[in-house]
Amino acid sequence: xxxxxxxxxxxxxxxxxxxxxxxxxxxxxxxxxxxxxxxxxxxxxxxxxxxxxxxxxxxxxxxxxxxxxxxxxxxxxxxxxxxxxxxxxxxxxxxxxxxxxxxxxxxxxxxxxxxxxxxxxxxxxxxxxxxxx
Length: 133
Fold this sequence. Notes:
Layout: E1 9-13, E2 19-23, E3 31-38, E4 46-54, E5 63-71, E6 82-89, E7 95-101, E8 107-112, H1 120-128
Antiparallel strand pairs: 1-2, 1-4, 3-6, 4-5, 6-7, 7-8
């Protein structure tokens, strides 16, 4: 039996420059994972989730896929406004991110299609003959 799997982990910027995987490398496609996320500042009105693909613990060394913003959050103290964020990869390899603030039900959805091929940085590195850092 031949199964489609994710080639790299899909995760988020967890603060402090760290990468937090949500969907692991080699997860069978289609797949879905959910994470509870909370505000980090008093009165924060939106939750911004930076989504990356890669394996490195430093977020800047992974490939950015996009930014998901859940806006219209209720006013509240840091950590008390909570959202459920779902990461779904469909059979075509399209990543969808959706979020729902738990107390009000406010929803936002976005589809992130990864571009195939190398990034400009990777092409420059290969042309120059430098190893990846």
